[in-house]
Amino acid sequence: MLPAPLLRPLRTQCLRRTYAISVAEPKQHPDKRLPRTFSADKQYHYNICTRLLASSLSTPLVFLQHTDFSAPRMIKLRRDITDAARNHTKRQRAMAGLPPLTPTSPEMQDAENQDPTLRAIRTGILGAALRDFEGVDKPSIERMTSSLRGPIAILSLPTFNPPQLSAILRTLEKTVPPKPPKTPDQLKKELDLKNADPATPGRRMKRVREERTPELKVVGVVVEGRVFLKEGGGVREVAGLETLGTLRAQIVGMLSAPAGQLAALLGEASGGRVARTLDGFRKSLEEAQEEEGKKDVEA
């Protein structure tokens, strides 16, 4: 008869359950009532996803895939994102010559209300919200979510501020650096340890908790109904854009350039330069007419 420790069932490795996001239309079973009724908890999360997707029409949403994040580690990640956004605001105010914000100033309270928000999302409910939401490009969403497995988080920004988004992305890379691939020696060592005989035969091996390293992957950005994937460099393109204020200033400069050139021309033509300026215009018109006449003759 085998010893008592060997009669116990062998402990198998626990597999983590992963979920996929399905944007395709669900199958209609004959036994299911339509429309489906959800519980209060699922309806609450569905409304959150719907509001987030509706906000993407004016502000960007960053889709993140996270793995092996504990609750304290997720809290620290949220704090790092908030600090990166506030530090960017401080630098912008310093460059504009504005005074720094104080804890008691009303502008500081407004800045706190406009901090980015990182929210963990239930993948199944997110898929249902994406199916029902009409303001997003469905084929691009399917390409983005086809390879996603596991927990998903969405980072929502209060305004469309590409430099702030770029600062947050740099902070994410520093806070959660990518995990380096395992070397052949490490893989061989793990395999030998797995296949090694127990030190004390007949006894249950001591359970050793595996040290997991958190991983964070930026999947894509959704803004104004368009999807920008990281694989094609779309995320960097969005983060490399200028702010709306800078773009408006560039447009105003382009529109005011002809008026400025005319004003400079009139300034040069003032006084005794009027005759020379008009004579130069006359000569340029005559040369243009002569060139047109030559072209007509050749034709």
TrEMBL record:
Highest taxon of source: Eukaryota
Renumbered residue ranges of the record's region Disordered: 89-113
Family: Belongs to the universal ribosomal protein uL10 family.
Protein's name according to its UniProt entry: Ribosomal protein L10-domain-containing protein
Organism of this sequence: Pterulicium gracile
